[in-house]
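User: Here's a structure from my thesis project, written as structure tokens. My advisor, Dr. K., wants to see whether a designed sequence matches the one we expressed. Can you design one independently, without my sequence as a hint?
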């Protein structure tokens, strides 16, 4: 009889984010424990077929537009993303922020966000989750749908805006709507030249009789 524990321990795989991990334990019931080599992070209770196929993730994998990850809370645990199957309000807020700034499909329609960025600390959801609790009006935002995360009020004269713990706060929606936003860049329009001025520029090429006819036409 095959001893799967002996066979599977030590097997190494790479997930879809080029993160390598090794099986360090097998429970005999098709579940394994893996260790991510780069970070030393250990995950338990994973199905072997998911591990083998690369569908095993680390909190530090940049799964969000190639720039952001979930990370770990200050106590070393993974942040809660869902409650009773529904994404938490904080997680939805963070994903919307990352999407707004780093999604190419979004930026095609809202190019002004190309002048925005998210600070390195907030590219990690666990840090964002811990920090926003200290932002002004957090409790009002948490228990109401009338507040939004704003980056403009504290950076009124900055062409390039950043989402960070020191530049953001929660403000009422009706205030946020009235705050100045970066304008969409537009190509300058060519100046229109009135046809009268064009004719006047050309008058030097006209005969005296032609000039009389043109002047009579424009009332000169």
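Assistant: Designed independently from the structure alone:
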């Amino acid at each position: 009889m095959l001893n799967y524990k002996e066979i599977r321990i030590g097997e190494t795989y790479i997930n879809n984010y080029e993160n390598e991990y090794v099986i360090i334990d097998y429970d005999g019931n098709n579940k394994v424990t893996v260790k991510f080599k780069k970070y030393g992070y250990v995950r338990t209770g994973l199905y072997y077929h998911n591990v083998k196929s690369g569908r095993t993730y680390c909190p530090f994998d940049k799964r969000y537009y190639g720039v952001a990850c979930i990370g770990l809370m200050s106590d070393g645990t993974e942040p809660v993303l869902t409650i009773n199957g529904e994404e938490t309000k904080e997680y939805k807020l963070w994903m919307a922020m990352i999407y707004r700034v780093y999604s190419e499909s979004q930026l095609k329609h809202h190019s002004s966000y190309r002048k925005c960025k998210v600070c390195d600390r907030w590219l990690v959801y666990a840090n964002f989750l811990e920090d926003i609790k200290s932002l002004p009006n957090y409790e009002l935002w948490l228990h109401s749908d009338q507040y939004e995360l704003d980056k403009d009020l504290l950076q009124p004269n900055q062409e390039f805006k950043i989402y960070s713990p020191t530049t953001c706060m929660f403000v009422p929606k009706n205030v946020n709507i009235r705050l100045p936003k970066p304008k969409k860049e537009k190509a300058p329009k060519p100046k229109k030249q009135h046809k009268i001025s064009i004719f006047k520029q050309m008058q030097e090429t006209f005969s005296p009789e032609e000039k009389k006819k043109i002047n009579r036409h424009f009332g000169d």
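When you compare it with your expressed construct, this may help: The chain has two domains: 4-52, 60-210.
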